[in-house]
Write a structure and sequence with these properties.
The structure is a single chain. By secondary structure, the chain is of the alpha/beta class. Helices cover about 40% and strands about 20% of the residues. A ten-stranded mixed beta sheet has the order 2-1-3-12-11-4-5-10-8-9, sandwiched between helices. The protein has a two-stranded antiparallel ribbon with strand order 6-7. The longest helix is centred in the N-terminal third of the chain and has 19 residues. The radius of gyration is 20 Å and the shape is globular. Bound molecules: 3-isopropylmalic acid and manganese (II) ion. Manganese (II) ion binds next to helix 8.
Amino acid sequence: MRRLAVIPGDGIGPEVIGEGLRVLDWFRREQGIEFELWQLDLGAERYLRDGTTFPAAVRDEIASSCAAVLLGALGDARVPGFEHARDILFGMRMGFDLYANVRPVRALADSLVPLRGRSARDVDFVVFRENTEGIYAGIGGQLRRGSADEIAINEDINTRKGVERIIRAAFEYARRTGRTRVLMSDKSNAMRYAHELWQRVFQELRGDYPGIEARHLYIDALCLELVRDPSQFQVIVTNNLFGDIVTDLGAALQGGMGVAASVSSNPDHPERVKLFEPVHGSAPNLVGRGTANPVATLLCIGLLFEEFGFVGAAQELEVAIRATFEARETTPDLGGSLSTRAVTDAVLARLARPAPA
Ligand code: IPM
Ligand code: MN
């Protein structure tokens, strides 16, 4: 049976993951979609308790026995250096070489789109964020720390292999899903070495995809265009850091951090474990209030279904979520007054009694 490692993590992580598991359980009971759950006690609590971050044995067992990981959120004020989170999160993204972090930016209701005169139709693209290198590689150092002459360096790592495979993954995705536009974004006007590589590889690869329009925008211009007219974009491919930033902007376009989901995978090794995470963080200010938005996690469950071939289930779940948006059955971040649990209840109720098509 497919094994799903579950890492609720920090902050609101456990609250939203709990809701995701209720939905997963509904599909198990009603449709026989089986995942064997493996609950992992990893996160700030565990780190503070016994110093454990991401043991090699756990990493290896995930790699060898799990089809997927569902991660809630990481980040806790009691671990200001973020050590545990880096070990766990980057331990999976980089350790399993899950180089494609795919973040769909799709508004599921007109009311969620914050731009004047725009509707859900206008916000429907997918960001391919490089997930294993760039500034996140963690290469760097500090010199003369704490002095007036101190130096702090983080190196931006861009390998030919890394750049090529993420750009190719974006084109392949476009071709597979019938999309006709791929945009690569970098900052090659300022980063003349690293991002000249991105330019060159993009120009090379576009020739392999004749039916697909290949466009380039510098990252600053992309931010502007995303707000001015998001409907021009279908697939965006960019580096790790820009992908991080632009998907927060994307989250705002689709209704906020409460509704943004992501999956990290290695398209060259589809058999390898895949990592599903809501894009939002641990949101310490919301902890324990019962008002965190579970929808990002529910959409992760949808992505999980899609990845494992349960396309019908993914669609049903999305239809149910859309219906709750239409009915304004939402948590306060989206203007509603429902609790985390009540939103899931609303989704479950609609799953049980689908609206007539
Ligand atoms: C994200 C998050 C992480 C990132 C943080 C928590 C390190 O912001 O998944 O977008 O920057 O990748
Ligand atoms: Mn982020």
